[in-house]
Write a structure and sequence with these properties.
Length: 213
Amino acid sequence: MKKQASIQPPKMPAALTEFKELEYDDYFIHACIFSHTDFPLFNTDRLTLEQVKFQNVRFTDEELPQLNLTDAIFESCDLSNADLSNAVIHRTVFKDCKLTGVNFSDATLRNVVFENCHCNYISFGFADLKQTKFLHSALRQGDFFEMKQSQLLFQQCDLEAVNFTGTELDGIDLTTSTFDELVITPELLKGCIITSTQAASFVSAFGMLVKYE
């Protein structure tokens, strides 16, 4: 069994400056707090955010490919259908957020926590996740296709119909999460930790049927 490493929290300064206005050529934002607003950005590539906090901010349909995000906290934010493909995200917490349909494809995540979030239809296809934790979150029909993972944790999550095709599940503990069906690659299932009740959900992937007496 692989050891679950502790996740590093965001490194935040003692005080943050209330964000006022974005200049057109600003691609680096540091030590700011955004609250109760829409994210005030034109769509841009390669934006860098460091030591930032977002409270009740809307990013709905925002296009931020290749975002560089380090030491960030999102609280009660709506990122539904945002494009964060190819993002690089370090020491970041998403808490009580709506992330329905967010595109994290080809993204790199390190020391990231999703807590009590709505993540249905989220996409991590071809992403690289290390020391990433999903806690008390809904990920129904999420996509983790051909993803690289290390020390990935799901704790008390709704994983119904999540797609893990092409992803090694070695070391992933699903015992506290719920699902009736997962999409998996059978030969990559070795080392996945499940309950005896959950085992029946995997039987069909091996071409077997369960007969209940």
